[in-house]
Structure formats: structure tokens, C-alpha cells
Fold this sequence. Notes:
Oligomer: heterodimer
Radius of gyration of chain B: 30 Å
Order of helices and strands of chain B: HHHEHHEHEEEEHEHEHEHHHHH
CATH architecture of the largest domain in chain B: 3-Layer(aba) Sandwich
Strand order of the largest sheet of chain B: 2-1-3-7-9
Strand order of the largest sheet of chain A: 8-1-9
Number of strands of chain A: 9
Number of helices of chain B: 14
Number of helices of chain A: 8
Radius of gyration of chain A: 23 Å
Shape of chain B: elongated
Largest sheet of chain B: 5 strands, parallel
Amino acid sequence: MTMDRRSLLKGVAAAGAGAAVTALPLEASTPKPEIPADAFGMLYDATLCIGCRACVTACKEANAMPGNLYNPPEDLSGDTKNIIKVWHRDQADQSYMKAQCMHCLDPACVRACMIGSFQKREFGIVTWDPTKCIGCRYCQVACPFTIPKFQWEKAMPKIVKCELCNHRINDETGKPMPACCEVCPKEAVISGDYRELLAEAQRRIDEHPERYYPAGAPKIYGAEDGGGTQVLYLAGVDFENLGLPDLGSEPAGISAATIQHTIYKGFVAPVALYGILGAVMWRNRRSGKEEE
Amino acid sequence: MARRDLWETPSMEPVGEGVDRRDFTKVCLMAAAAVGLSNSAGLKMAEAAEQGLKPSVIWLHFQECTGCTESLLRTSAPGLAELILDLISLDYHETLFAAAGHQIEEVLHQTMEANAGKYILVVEGAIPTKDGGIYCQIAGRTAMDILQDVASKAGAIISIGSCASWGGIPSAAPNPTGAVGAPEILPDKTIVTIPGCPANPYNFLGTVLQYATFGTLPALDDKGRPMFAYGRTIHEHCPRRAHFDAGRFARVYGDEGHRLGYCLYALGCKGPETHANCSVAHFNEIPGAWPIGIGHPCFGCTEQGVGFTKFVHEAATLPDGAHPPIEPEHGPTNAGWYGVAGLAAGAVIGAGMMASKKIADAGEEESS
């Protein structure tokens, strides 16, 4: 090996400094994310869902995903963007749950994506750009809902997650037509303008406050959680039972950025790491000299 | 049986009269085949009947619509005439007997005495218990009294229909007469329950003919239902099941999916929680003659707590395991795998140290 030790250390230091500089302005960003003017989303009402999985099939068809339901998927995966799961304490006390990308207003995946492959693009839809992705899968680690999936079995893998059927644009309205919302027989999942969906969710709560969780003051999950998500949930049971974590109102993107920035704060951790490596090298070198 | 016979109104002529041995054996074989017994069972049935060993049957009606009897009247293999004239001896049946009043009451008592411990008691209809059971009385006795009395000397007891099995329609909320099924009145007896509204007559015939021929009862589940008919749910053998699995549903009555014969689950089909064999044994040999066959969701008539309890449009409870849990288990996560991961991490660290040593050595060589 002919690499000069000095040049290696220099390169690493430069890269680290660059990261620290680019990271700094992020921490100062506003805690209340902006809602895109054309924000499009979905509203899933778990109290209406009957678990038929028509949406799972429709999603696979609309996105040309392989697999059939005679061998139904167990979880989101490299060929499943949308899934119906069940939580139950007993037969009477149960709830279905539709899992797919939440399209956060301040997405952690976008913050974590070092190369800008993940972006909030048209309609506020969080999309993945295959031409930029380098396959680091930081998005998978960053997402608080563990939504992005990686095609582990493929030679040319992709990151797979719901993109709100942004390839199916309605000619008349000019808006996406999520396949899952089209086929739902109970209208348990509907799509539309984000602000209208918020109003609709509130209307349902006002109409049947007894139906929704928590009793007394029903909540729209996603109105505030993680800084707000463009996919909203109503349910009759605790959202945490449905795999929707209690994120508080801090934007998910800020949380992810804070973790990363804490690690790199003052550049202490990288310097310490390379310091240890340097010490090991120095020790090895000295013991080599002694042998001579 | 010739195909055209399926569509003809079953003859009500008493074919049992004057038939020769050959024809009679044929009837028995057909009866055995129709209810899923083997040919040898049919022959044994014929032998037993020839020797005059026809089992005596007492049929009691309580709170019900007689729909179970009506559907039994329309069976054709065996037809009703063969059944009651050749295969069993129907000694007391309030819908079918010709006599009335004191005369028939006398027959009931005579039959009970003559066949004590051997006769088959068939119960059709729920039994009212409220206010001392006064809401259903025959010959001055309450249904509870009659059932206790006749059951005490019966060889076998069969509850036909949901009413007699668990209460059925009369027990639906608010249940003004306190109606219950026969098993609740006779908790100590083995009662074969053939729920359904009406019960599929072949499930009843199979049970009766097995008892008549072999003196045994079919294997029963914890609710007294014969396993051969009620061992599985409608959903498990539904001809529309593939549409359920593939996520193709009729969304409203008359829509495209409904016309194409898609799954009726979203319209409230109770098939996933209803135990019965309707999906494989259609009613009275008319292909497709059962609710789902004609495009209506199963409403769970055989199942207590479903039929006449849940609304037709209400979604059924799917069985456990139909959906993945919120956090499915992913691959092996036991201690052994953590050990393997630890070894791999150690190898990486070791390799890193060696690499750093090599870089250091290389630097040394260059500088020297």
C-alpha cells in the first residue's frame, strides 16, 4: 500500500469539517414545518376498516409489485408498499392498521439523505430519486415509522415506499389517485387535499366522539405528531398499539438531524475515533521499531 | 339419479308401498350416498329396515316457523315418503300427523312406552323459559315439561335448526319469552345440534340414518354439532374465496364486482366466523341454492352470537392469523445470532487494526 498516512488523515479531516459545516445551519431551522400549498394526503379511519386487504392488492397492481395474496405479505418489504395489519387484545377489542409512508411535513428520511435522493416534491409527496441514490439506507434508519424498505435480494436494488401513486394523475383534477383509496369498499381510507382531510377528520370526531381514541378528547394522529404528516389516522385504540409511536410535536426531521448533529457536535466524536486509531498505529509502529 | 329428476317436484306418491326388494335397496343406497355414508351402510340400512328395525322418531315442535320441516319435506334422496315410510318410523310429528287432539297425545305416550330408551327425539324450535315457560304450551303442558319428559326416555336427541340448537330467532334481542335451545334445558344429555335456518336437511338425514343403521352418533364438536358438517367455516370452502384472497370485493349490491361474483365480505358476509357446510352441500340438490350462491352475504344463521345478533352489513370477525401483527417477527433474533454478529464485529475491528498497522508500516518504509 502506497497511501501516505498524512494525506489520508488530511482527507478525512477535510470531509469531517465539511460535514460539520453543512450540518450547522440545519439545527437552526424552524420547529414548525411549513405545509406545502398543494399538500396531498390520505386519511385512514381504523374504526371503518374491515381488514379486507383490497388496498394491498390494488397497491401491488398499481405499482407493478410482484407477489400475490395467496401467500400474503407479512410486512412492508421490497415488493410491498402498503399493508393491513391487526392489533388485538381479544376478538372483541381489536383494530386494523394500514401501514405505508406517512409523508411527513418535515421528513427524517429527507434530512438523513446525504445526497438529496429523498425530497419532498410535488403535492408534498416524499419521493425517492433512483438516479441519485447511493444505497446507504440512512433513510431506513432515520424513519421513525420504519417505512422505507430495501430490495435486499436484487442485484440493482431500489428503496421502496409509498409515493401516494404520484404516477397515477387524474386528468381532470390534476391530482394523484392512490389506488388503495379507490378500491376501499368502506371508504376507510380516503385521499385528497391535506387541509380538507384535516377538516374531514375533525368533522368525524365531532360527529362520533365516542368512537375515537382517546375517549373525551379524540386525536387525529398526524395533525401534530412528528411535526405533522400528510397521512392522517383516526382510531378507536391507542395509536401506539397500532405501531404509531408517540413522537411529540417535534418535527421528525429535526429529531433525526439533532441525533446526527449531536454525534458530530464540535467534531469531538470523529476526532476521538481517529485519535484512537492513530494511537493504535503509533503503538504498532513503536513495537515494530523495538523489535529491530 | 338422472339430472332431470333434480328439477322435478319430488313425487308425494308413497313409493314405499309395494316396491320390490331391489328398488328398496336402491333407495337405501341412494340415501346413504346422499348423506356421505358408504354403500355397505346403505345395504345395512336396507337389511335393518326389512327386519322391521326402523327407528321410532318423535318430533317435537316448539317456538319456530317449521322451516326445518319444510326443507326436509323437499329432500329427494331419499324423498320424504321413502324416509318416513321405509327408513324410519315417524310416530309423532305435529305438522305431518293426520290425527289430532287426545288421539295423537295417546300415540305420543304409547310410542314412548313401547320404544323407551330407543326412540330418536327430534326437537324443532326454541323453548321459552320466562314466566315458567307459559309462552308455548301443548295439551296443557309447557314446552319445558314436554321436552324434559320425552327426553328422559329417548335413545338419542337431535336439535334441528338454530332455534332448537341455541335459541335462534326467538332468542334474538330483546328475547321477550326467554327462549333457549334444547341443550340449555337438558344440560346432562348428549344432544346433537344441527343448527341452520333452516338446517340443511342432509346434515339431519346423515345423523338420523347413521343412528338408525349403526346405533352410533357422528363425531361432535364442543357445541354438539356433527364434525362432518360443522367442522369448518363457510369461508374455508367458499367458492368465492379466491376473490377474498386476491382482494376483489363487491362493494355495493349490483355493482360490477357483485355481478362478476366477487367476494361478499365487504357487504357483511359472516362466512369467516360461521361454521357450516353450506358452501359444499347446497340446499335440496339445487346447484347454487344457498345465500352466497345467489349473491347474498352469509348472515351466520348457524352460529350463536352471529345469526340474528349481528347486522347483515356488519363486518365479520376474521380468524386469527388472517393478518400479520403490528410488529411481525423478522428472521432469527436469538442469542446465537447475537453471538454470530459479535464475532463478525470483532473480525471487522481486528481487520481494521491490522489495516492500520499495514498503513503505519507502509509509511515507515516510505520514510526510511
